[in-house]
Write a structure and sequence with these properties.
The protein is an alpha/beta fold. It contains 17 helices and 15 strands. A four-stranded parallel sheet has the order 4-3-9-10, with helices on both faces. Strands 5-6-7-8 form a four-stranded antiparallel sheet. It has a three-stranded mixed sheet with strand order 12-11-13. The chain binds zinc ion. Zinc ion (ZN) binds next to loops.
Length: about 475
C-alpha cells in the first residue's frame, strides 16, 4: 500500500497560507509517512468560548485533510494548565488548581467531541512536562541565549538575530509598541520570561533557580519537541498567538538548537466576532460553546464555524446558527430520502470531488460548502439509478471529510475510544488487502475491505495504490 506519501504525487496538492512567507504555498512535509502538527490549545480555567471552538474545528478539519492526503499524521494539541488566570480562579473558589483544570479539560473534551473534533494523538499538559521545560531553559542558559536575574530566567532577545521574522515586528517595534512587560532587571526591554519565582501560596516547582513556574511561551517549545521531535511540519493557532507567543517559541527553539529549523508551516485562524462586535469580557458578549451545546446541535455549530474562510473573521449570530441548523436538517432528510439498498461504499466519490478540491486550496470552506450544497441540489433532482447513487456517495464522502457525519450518530463517540495504535492496525490491514489484490485473491480483498468499513475506514484505490482515511 502506498497510501502514505501519495500526497506529493497528488495532482491537486494541499496549499496553505504560511504566515512565515505571507503567501499560499504547496504543503510539503519533511517525511510524507510521518506528518507532524502542533496546535496551541486552551488555557483551562473556564469553558471553551467560540474563539477556542473555532480554532479546534479549523485545525480538526486540517488534520482530517492531512490524514486524507498522507494517512499518518501525528497531531499534538496542548492544555495550558499552569497560568496566573488559573491561580486567580483557584484563589477565588478556594480549590486546588488541579480541581479546576481537570474539570475544564473534561468539559473541553466533551464539548469538542460534540462539535465533531477528533482527539489529537497527544494532549500534553504543562504540569506533566515540568522536567522537559526546566531542561530546555537550562540548555538556553548554557547556549548563552538566557540569563538569570532577580529569581527569574529571561530569554535575551538581542541574542537571536532572526527575532520578528514570523510577525514582521522588529525588536524596536516591539519596544515602541509597549507590548513588553517593563522590569528593572531585564537586560533588554524586549526580553521575556522563561521562569519566574512563585510565592509560597502560589503553585510552584523546584528548579535550579529556586521554586517557581514557567513563563507561557517555553511550554509549547518544550512539549512540541517532546511529543513530535524537531523540526515539525506545521504549527497552528489563533492569529492572536502570532505575537508574542509564536515569535517567542521560534526564538527559543531555533536559538537553542544553534539555528536549526523548528517548524516549516505556520497556520493561523481569524477571530470570532459576535453580531459584528469583537467578543470580549468587557463587552459581556463572550459566547461559550458549552452553553450553545445545551440548546443546539453540535454539527450545526460546526457547520456555522466553518462557514467563513479560516483566515477571515467569523461573525457569529443567531441567524448564522439557525441557517446552519436548517441546512443540516435538509441534508439529513435528503440522505434519508435517497438511501438505496446497495449503498454503503463511498470509495470512488472522494477523488475529483469538488468539495475536496476546494478544501485542498487553503481550506476554502465557503467554496467547499457551496459545492456541497450544489451536489445536494443535483441529487435532489436526480431519479433513482446509478447517477443518483454516485451523487449520494459524493455527498456522504464530502460530509465525512468535513467532519459532518449525518448518517451515523454515535459513531463519532466510538471513534474517540480508538487510540493512535489503531492507525497502525488499519495500515497493516490495508497492506494485507493490497497484497491480496496483487495476487488476485479478490475474495480476501473484499473481506478485508468489509472489515475495515465496519471500523469506519474508507478506502480509495488510486493508480498509486490504496489511500485510506477514517470516515469518523
Ligand atoms: Zn502555544
Amino acid at each position: 500500500m502506498t497510501q502514505t506519501g501519495d500526497g506529493q504525487k497528488n495532482a491537486h496538492p494541499l496549499r496553505l497560507t504560511n504566515t512565515l512567507s505571507g503567501s499560499k504555498q504547496i504543503f510539503v512535509p519533511r517525511d510524507p509517512n510521518r506528518v507532524t502538527m502542533y496546535v496551541c490549545g486552551p488555557t483551562v480555567y473556564n469553558y471553551a468560548h467560540l474563539g477556542n471552538a473555532r480554532s479546534a474545528v479549523v485545525f480538526d478539519l486540517l488534520y482530517r485533510i492531512l490524514r486524507h492526503s498522507y494517512g499518518r499524521v501525528l497531531y499534538a494539541r496542548n492544555f495550558t494548565d499552569v497560568d496566573d488566570k488559573i491561580n486567580a480562579e483557584a484563589v477565588r473558589t478556594g480549590q486546588p488548581i488541579s480541581a479546576i483544570t481537570d474539570r475544564f479539560i473534561s468539559a473541553y473534551h466533551a464539548d469538542m467531541a460534540a462539535l465533531g473534533v477528533l482527539r489529537p494523538d497527544f494532549e500534553p499538559r504543562v504540569t506533566e512536562h515540568l522536567s522537559d521545560i526546566i531542561a530546555l531553559i537550562d540548555r538556553l542558559l548554557e547556549a548563552g541565549h538566557a540569563y538569570q536575574a532577580a529569581g527569574h530566567v529571561l530569554f535575551h532577545v538581542p541574542s537571536f538575530a532572526e527575532y520578528g521574522r514570523l510577525s514582521g515586528r522588529s525588536r524596536e517595534d516591539v519596544i515602541a509598541g509597549a507590548r513588553v512587560e517593563v522590569a528593572p532587571f531585564k537586560r533588554d526591554p524586549a526580553d521575556f520570561v522563561l521562569w519566574k519565582p512563585s510565592s509560597d501560596d502560589a503553585p510552584g516547582w523546584e528548579s535550579p533557580w529556586g521554586r517557581g513556574r514557567p513563563g507561557w511561551h517555553i511550554e509549547c517549545s518544550a512539549m512540541t519537541e517532546h511529543c513530535l521531535g524537531l523540526p515539525i511540519d506545521l504549527h497552528g493557532g489563533g492569529q492572536d498567538l502570532i505575537f508574542p507567543h509564536h515569535e517567542n517559541e521560534i526564538a527559543q527553539s531555533v536559538s537553542v538548537r544553534n539555528g536549526a529549523a523548528y517548524c516549516d508551516f505556520w497556520v493561523h485562524n481569524g477571530f470570532v466576532t459576535v453580531d459584528g462586535r469583537k467578543m470580549s469580557k468587557s463587552l459581556g458578549n463572550v459566547v461559550l460553546a458549552h452553553d450553545l451545546l445545551e440548546r443546539h446541535d453540535g454539527q450545526a455549530i460546526r457547520l456555522a464555524l466553518l462557514s467563513a474562510h479560516y483566515r477571515q473573521p467569523l461573525d457569529w449570530s443567531d441567524k448564522l446558527l439557525t441557517g446552519s441548523g436548517r441546512a443540516l436538517s435538509r441534508l439529513k432528510r435528503l440522505l434519508a430520502d435517497t438511501v438505496a439498498p446497495d449503498d454503503g461504499d463511498a470509495v470512488e466519490a472522494i477523488s475529483h470531488n469538488p468539495v475536496v478540491l476546494a478544501l485542498e486550496d487553503d481550506l476554502n470552506t465557503p467554496l467547499a460548502l457551496s459545492a456541497l450544497f450544489g451536489i445536494a441540489r443535483k441529487l435532489r433532482h436526480t431519479d433513482p439509478g446509478e447517477k443518483r447513487s454516485r451523487l449520494r456517495h459524493e455527498l456522504v464522502a464530502a460530509l465525512s471529510l468535513l467532519g459532518l457525519d449525518l448518517e451515523s450518530d454515535g459513531l463519532e463517540i466510538r471513534r474517540h475510544g480508538i487510540n493512535a495504535t489503531h492507525d497502525a492496525v488499519v495500515a497493516d490491514m490495508v497492506a494485507q488487502r493490497d497484497a491480496a489484490r496483487r495476487r488476485k485473491d479478490y475474495e480476501e480483498a473484499d473481506r478485508l475491505r468489509a472489515t475495515l468499513r465496519a471500523q469506519g475506514v474508507v478506502l480509495d484505490d488510486t493508480t498509486h495504490g490504496t489511500r485510506w482515511w477514517k470516515s469518523m
